[in-house]
Amino acid sequence: MRSLKFKVQSSKLLTGILIGFWTLFAYADCIAGDVSFGSQLTINHTDKRVSNASAIIDDEGRIYIGWVKEEGNKNSIYIASSTDGGKTFSDKVRVNGDADMPSGINHAPTMALGAKGEIYVTWSAGRTDGDFSSDIKFSRSLDGGRTFEPTITVNDDKAPASHGFESMIVAPDGSIHIAWLDGREKKEGVSSTYIAKSTDNGKTFEKNVRVDGNSCPCCKTAVTVAHDGTVYVSWRKVFKGDIREIVLSKSTDRGKSFSESVVVGNDKWVIAGCPHRGPSMSSDKDGILYVVWYTEGETGSPAIYIANSKDGGKSFSKKMLPFSNWVFPDHPVMTLNRDGKPLIAWEETTPVLSRLMFQQMDEKTQQINQGIRRAHDPVLSVNKRGDILIAWSQEEIRFTRTAFRLFIGQ
Q1: pTM score
Q2: Nearest CA to 62 among 81, 90, 80?
C-alpha cells in the first residue's frame, strides 16, 4: 500500500495512526453475523434544523419515525409511518401544539407502543418563567398515528425548574412508566431522578415518585420493566470528588417506591461536568438485566461496557468490552432480540471518518451506514416476530437524513 504523506502537527500523530488502524480493520469488522439487514433507506430532511430520530417497529411490521424540526420560532415534533418496510411513508403528522413545543432539536422525542397499537410520545417542553425551565409532556395516538390527542404534563410540580432527559417503557401489564431528571430541588450542578406511571393507557399519570438524588443533570435516564413487574431505572449519579457512575434502582411494588441505588460498573470516572451520555438497559424473559454504557473512567479512553445482573439488580457481573478493533466509540444503545440475546448499536467517529456499527452479542460486528458522512445517534427496535429496525441520523453537506435498515425475522 502506498504511504500517505500528511502535513500535520505532531500532536495529531496519534489520531492519524488510529485512523490507519481503523481502515485496516474495516473489512474484518464488517463481516455480518447472524443478522443480515436490508438495504439502507432514508427520509430526507430539507435542511439541518432537525433532531436525531426516534424509531419503533410494531408487531405487524409498521415502522414509525419521529423527529423534532425547528421552523422559525416554532419547534415541532413530527411522526411518519410506513407499512411497506420503509419504502414509502405517510405524510408527517405534527404531535405537539404551539403551547407545548419541545425545548429544541438537541433531543429526539421518546416513543413507545401500547399493546393495541397505541403510539405514546413524550418530550421536554420549554417554559418561559425561568432559565432552563421545562416540563415533561406526553401525547398519544389511538388511530395509528393519524392524529394525536392534546398533551398532558407528566411532572406534578408547578415550579419553574428543569425536567428532561426522559425515557419511557410500556410494561407487560400495559402500564406506562416515564423516568426523567428533575431540577425541582434546586441543587446546583445536579438533579434528582423521578418517575411517574400511567395505568389508563396514558390518559392520566399518577403522583411523581422520587427515585434518588445527586443525578448528573444531562445524562439521559433509562427505564425498563421485567416480566415479573419489577421496574428498573438507570442513570448517571454524581459521587464525592466528581466521580460519575452509572447506577440502578428498582421497584418491586409497581413503581410506588425504589431501592437504594447500586453502582453498575465502578468506572471511577472523574469529570467536573456532565458528559451527556446515559445508559441503555433491557431485561429478558428469565429476569436477567443488561446495562450498556459509555465511560472514560480508569483507562482515560472512550469505552463502551456491558454488564448483567442475575439477582434483580442487587449486583452486577464483571463489566465487559463487547467489541474489538473499535475507535472512539460513542452513544451505545441496546435492546434484546426475541431469544433474549443483546443487540447493541453504537457510533465510531474520528475527525475525518464516521461509521455506525451493530453487533448481536457474541457475533461479528458489522458496519451499518454507507459513505463517509457522519452517522450518529443510533436507535434499535425489535418486535415479537423478530424484526429488527436500526435507525440513525446521517449528516449530508446541506441537509440531514434519517437513515434506517431492517432485518426481517423468520
Answers
A1: 0.91
A2: 81
Contact 287, 267 (CB under 8 A): no
Q: What is the mean pLDDT of residues 123-131?
A: 90
Other C-beta atoms closer than 10 Å to the C-beta of 173 total: 10
Give the rounded distance of the alpha carbon of 133 from its chain centre: 22
Rounded CA-CA distance 357/22 in Å is 13
> Residue 257 and residue 255: Cα distance in Å, rounded?
6
Give the rounded distance of the alpha carbon of 156 from its chain centre.
Answer: 24
Interval 284-296: pLDDT, tens:
999 999 999 999 9
d(CA 255, CA 250): 8
The Cα 104–Cα 197 span in angstroms is 25
57 closest CA partner among 356, 361, 343: 343
pLDDT of amino acid 370? 85
Residue ranges of E strands in 323-410:
329-336, 342-349, 354-360, 366-367, 375-382, 388-395, 400-407
d(CA 187, CA 191): 7
The amino acid present at 142, given as its one-letter code, is L
What is residue 12's three-state secondary structure? helix
Concatenating the DSSP letter of every residue in 124-154 gives EEE-SSSTT-EEEEEEEESSTTS--PPPEE-
What pairing do the DSSP bridges indicate for beta strands 375-382 and 366-367? unpaired
Distance (Å, whole) CA 376 – CA 319: 24
Cα 100 to the center of its chain, rounded Å: 22
Question: Strands 74-82 and 93-94: what pairing?
Answer: antiparallel
Query: How many C-beta atoms surround the C-beta of residue 47 within 10 A?
Result: 10
**Residue 117 CB-density burial (10 A; 0-12 exposed, 13-18 middle, 19+ buried):** middle
In the chain, where are the structural domains located?
Answer: 322-410
What is the largest distance, in Å, between two alpha-carbon atoms of the chain? 66
Mean pLDDT in residue range 174-192: 94
Element (H, E) at 179: strand 176-182
Q: Which three cell numbers stand for residue 2?
A: 502506498
**CA–CA dist 221, 35 (Å, integer):** 28
Q: What whole-number distance in Å separates Cα of residue 376 and Cα of residue 104?
A: 18
Element (H, E) at 29: helix 13-29
